[in-house]
Amino acid sequence: MQSSRLRIAARLAEILAVAAWHLARALPVVLFARVVSGPAAARRGLWRCVVGAIQDLGPAFVKFGQIAGTRVDLLPPEALCEFRVLHDAVRPPSKRAARGMLQSRQGIRVIDPVPLGSGSIACVHRGELEDGTPVALKVKRPGIDRRMWLDLRLIRVLARVSARLPSVRGMPMADLVDYVTEAIAGQLDFAREAENIHELRAHLAGLPEVRVPEVHRERSSEDCLVLEYLPGLDARTPDSLPPETRAELGAAVLAAAHRMMFVAGFVHCDLHPGNVYLTTGRVVILDAGYCVRLPDRVRDLIGEFFARLAAGEGRRCGEIILESAAGCLTDVDEKGFVESVAESVGRRAGPGNTFDMAAFGEEIFGLQRQFGLYATADFVFPLMALLVLAGTVRGFTGDVDFQSVGLRRGSP
Q: What pTM did the predictor assign?
């Protein structure tokens, strides 16, 4: 116990030191850019320094940075441009570490030691089986398990400390953070991810516009997933597609989200731009390590919530949130909460309204804080996942109405 506390304290000191170093380094860079090139260049320089700090702070911070990088409603364009690095171009390991990662694997030849993409947990390299079949090798970063577990434990400790602050008293911070960190930690288990990929492929098999690469489970190991190689995945592809094609593929993403969440109760929580690619006729979904399964009751409540949302039935939306509440403050005004949700739905959702998932989600979470009502993590987490997906889809098309995600129907 004592050694664990010492490791957490040492990691916290390391984080503070890294943050202080980057702050000291960023100030002269930003000031110089402002003097020489103006405010816009200074802002770009600042966000570039922030992204560099996130990468140096470690994988848990990169993961939260990936989520933040989808929030086009919160971050300015220059920030979003820099945060794209965190989706699939995180700084790769050193050449020496990469050689250790890519040591000889029976029956598999590494084509290129330079990764096709690099994320918070692993890097993806192109490989080839002995019969010439091309494959993608998802290989864990060296020492990632220990580093991630330590950071997530630190985040849990900080969440429990912050839960005592008056401003968040009554909010189930610890439960929500535990839920999130457990899901993130699941990405370290490649056997579990292989099962998730198999399940995801089964759920989406009826959608010809959506492709999930197959995993070669007999070739994979605890630190390397061997996957079907899909060429031509490029984050710049949407820019070359006509608007109608982007809109059709955006609708396909929505259909996949419906099939996963509302039919199967299976939530892919990591659908940022590094895991959702468009080709000329398909959507490709990657990386199923960060997934959760919903209890049947929660799946049904969320399904009804979005169905009522699309119909503009705001009072029922408020009542559903009450039904899922994990706790509330003394003498909470439940009637006032339902009326406030109804007013929000009336302004933002339902027939005739242009629905903005991010703005609506922020307002609903704000109302919960205001009235002291907090839904269970099982209910909140899918909404957070949809916020991430909404940011991703908005990056390549603005023609998808996210309030209709719960209305789509299809066979499981």
A: 0.79
